[in-house]
Each structure stands twice: as structure tokens, then as C-alpha cells.
Design a protein that fits this description.
- With about 240 residues, this protein is of the alpha/beta class.
- The protein has a single domain (about 1-235), classed as 4-Layer Sandwich (Purple Acid Phosphatase, chain A, domain 2), CATH 3.60.21.10.
- It has eight helices and eleven strands.
- The protein has a six-stranded mixed β-sheet. Strands 5-6-7-9-8 form a five-stranded mixed β-sheet, with no helix packed on it.
- α1 (about 25-40) packs parallel to α2 and α3 (about 85-95) crosses α4.
- It starts with a strand and ends with a strand.
């Protein structure tokens, strides 16, 4: 594992794994899960947690498999965060027609196929074709999770707004105002959502970006946060 200096420190004995945007790359997610399980076996910490940063679905070949993999990991406790793609699908399932159009445009057709549904399946029939367990998983996703000096979210935070007052839409979708900011947000923000052009995790003083473009020819990255360092696992 490649270790880098972290912008913050966790207490001794605490380890957090965080996986960036999966986008239907279920085989890579399963590979990272296997690597995490092996790391826990060989180097067991006092306390461990896995955080999935959202966007399990769309664009890639196996959204259904990615959700199943996220649901099935049991080597340590897991927090599953919501991404903007999951939020858009849920809005579509709840009857919002513009969200349905957006979802299909941004990779939903591939997700439908992974559930065995034709591209042209009417929106009103999507819920019947998506397993109830998968819909339950999607509706149970969290918007953020705090561990010590780190705040794990999908996209980022609005600079200048207290962490407890952040809007869901910013946590799920923000880009420029957050990515360009050098402000102290009150925590180091660990996020995905915007693929790093170099396909290598981006570590800054106020944020860590773990979206390394798995579905765009890059890799799926897991950041391993331990004491004052970050390890990188990729698949």
C-alpha cells in the first residue's frame, strides 16, 4: 500500500476506509472489498469503518452488482452515503418526470439493463423491476458522516456555511465553489463526485478527493485513513 501524509490525524487504533465513485464497476468494488478484508486480517486495528462515498450506480455495466456488493460487505462496520445519481433515481421513482429524464441521460439506461429492464421501460414500471432490497438500500443512504477531524460526503460542502447547516443539494452536487476553495471548512472533507484528471487521489489541506474515474478508464480508489497518514488501495 502507498502511504501519504494526511491533512489530519485519527486517534491511535482507529482506521477508516473510504471508497470513491463506483458507477457500476461492481467487479472493482468487490476487488477493493477483498483487499480491505485482507488488510483487516493481516493488520487488525482496534476499530475500523468502511465508508462508501456514493454514486454506486449508472454509466458502468453492473449497477445492480455494485449495490449488492455494498450491501454485502461484512468485514467491518459500513456507512453508505448517497450520491447525486442515487438521489436523482429516487426522485424519479417518486414521480418527478424531469429527474427521470436526467437520470436516463446520465447513465440510467445502463443501470436499468443491470436490473434486467429494457432501456425503453416506462418510468412507471421501474419500481416493479428494481429489487425491493435495492430500493431499501437507496432510501437508507446517509448524506454525511463525521469521524474525528474528517467529514465524509459525496460532493463537498458550501464554503462559509457551518457544517451542520449544509444543504443536501450541495452535499450531493457542489463542484466549483468547493473545489476552488482553500478555506478551513471546520473538518477535512473526504469526497468524490468530480473525477481527478490525473486518476490519482487528490490530497489537499482542506479536502481529499477519492473519485479517480473508475468508469472513465481510471481506477476505483479506497483511501485508508490511519493516524496521520493515508494509504491508497486501487482496483
Amino acid at each position: 500500500m502507498r502511504w501519504l501524509r494526511a491533512p489530519a490525524s485519527l486517534p491511535p487504533g482507529m482506521r477508516v476506509y473510504a471508497i470513491g465513485d463506483v458507477h457500476g464497476c461492481a467487479d472493482r468494488l468487490r476487488a477493493l472489498h477483498a483487499a480491505i478484508a485482507e488488510d483487516l486480517r493481516v493488520h487488525p486495528p482496534r476499530e475500523a469503518l468502511l465508508v462508501h462515498l456514493g454514486d454506486y450506480i449508472d454509466r458502468g455495466p453492473d449497477s445492480a452488482g455494485a449495490i449488492a456488493a455494498a450491501m454485502g460487505f461484512s468485514a467491518c462496520p459500513v456507512v453508505n452515503l448517497m450520491g447525486n445519481h442515487e438521489a436523482t433515481l429516487l426522485a424519479a421513482l417518486d414521480g418527478d418526470a424531469p429527474s427521470a429524464t436526467d437520470w436516463l441521460h446520465y447513465g440510467g439506461r445502463e443501470a436499468l439493463r443491470s436490473w434486467g429492464l429494457p432501456d425503453w421501460t416506462p418510468r412507471g414500471e421501474w419500481a416493479a423491476g428494481i429489487p425491493a432490497a435495492h430500493q431499501g438500500f437507496l432510501r437508507g443512504l446517509a448524506l454525511s458522516h463525521r469521524v474525528g477531524p474528517y467529514l465524509f460526503v459525496h460532493a463537498g460542502v458550501r464554503p462559509g456555511v457551518p457544517l451542520e447547516a449544509q444543504r443536501a443539494d450541495d452535499l450531493l452536487r457542489i463542484r466549483g465553489a468547493f473545489l476552488d476553495s482553500e478555506a478551513d471548512h471546520g473538518a477535512v472533507i473526504v469526497h468524490g463526485h468530480t473525477p481527478v484528471r490525473e486518476r490519482v487521489a487528490e490530497i489537499r489541506a482542506n479536502r481529499v478527493n477519492l473519485d479517480t474515474g473508475a468508469v472513465y478508464g481510471g481506477v476505483l480508489t479506497c483511501g485508508v485513513f490511519e493516524e496521520d497518514r493515508i494509504g491508497l488501495l486501487t482496483a
